[in-house]
Amino acid sequence: MRLKDKVAVITGGASGIGRTTCLKFVEEGAKVVVADFNEELGNETVAMLKEKGGEAVFKKVDVSEFKQVEELVNFTVETYGRIDTIFNNAGIVKATPLLELEPEMYEKIVKVNQDGVYYGILAAGRKMKELEIQGTIINTSSIFGFLANERTFSYNASKAAVKLMTQTAALEYAPYGIRVVGVAPGVVDTPIYTPLKEAGKAHIMTDKQMTKQFTAPEDIANVVAFLASDEARAINGSTILVEDGYTSFK
Fold first, then answer.
1. Nearby residues of 200 by Cβ (< 8 Å), 6 or more positions away
2. What is the pLDDT of residues 11-23, one digit of tens each?
3. Beta bridge mates, 60
4. pLDDT, tens digit (0-9, with 9 covering 90-100), for 183-242
């Protein structure tokens, strides 16, 4: 119960790493605001959390719009009286060769993955400072924020930006006791890889990790929960690689 009585916002909480992290946070005693654009899956996540005895609510949000992220933070405080953690996790990707990548698609991906994280950092940081809460802001980067990858130019650019935004925000928020950290997952067993599995080609990605297996979403959630806890108070500005050695032998 390392997060007992803490209030956490998790964007992209309707599925994948986000949903699994919501479940982990509830297990650790947190109250959770599940934030996502997908209302049906978001409410499904809330039902799962309540079945586990957790306290949770859903808030529909498009993280590419600052006003909606700001409203999300305000909603959280109105509902639970405070905000201790925001996990800026919502993200999208579309594999496209660079020569076929239209500006509209590039901008859409950057708007969610990069601007959405900025909006979360800004809105939550302002509210934490206002309420004098020494909270934690956690951002999802990626191994592809550290390494080049074909067909994901805009995704790579956005995730690399998240890494440096995390460092810079940590520096500026440190005087207020607000920590800003990140996680960089590797090849995680989420629906994004379902087509590869169905085609019998999952090994194309899993072979790039040391165990030759997908990383479980629970492994990412465990690290995020640790980072949100007081046990991680000496970690600030860092983006933690949770990638089963993916970057170590490239």
1. none
2. 999 999 999 999 9
3. 36
4. 999 999 998 888 889 999 999 999 999 999 999 999 999 999 999 999 999 999 999 999
CATH number of the CATH domain containing 173: 3.40.50.720
30 within 8 A of 7, measured Cβ to Cβ: yes
Residue 127 lies in a domain: yes
What domain count does the chain have? 1
CA dihedral 85, 243, 118, 2 (to 10 degrees): 0
Q: Does the annotation count 155 as an active-site position?
A: yes
Is 49 part of a structural domain of the chain? yes
CA distances, 205 to each of 11, 146, 164, 214 (Å): 26, 16, 26, 8
Domain span including residue 206: 7-241
**HSE of 44, CA atoms in CB hemisphere, 13 A:** 12
| Residue 100 belongs to a domain | yes
Which residue in the list 106, 118, 155, 173 is annotated as catalytic?
155
Structure tokens at 220: 């990412």
Return left, alpha or beta for 16; rule: phi > 0 is left, psi -120 to 50 is alpha, else beta. left
Number of helices (H), then strands (E), belonging to the chain: the values are 9, 7
Nearest alpha-carbon partner for 69 in 49, 48, 90: 90
- Per DSSP, the residues of 176-190 read GT-EEEEEEE-SB-S
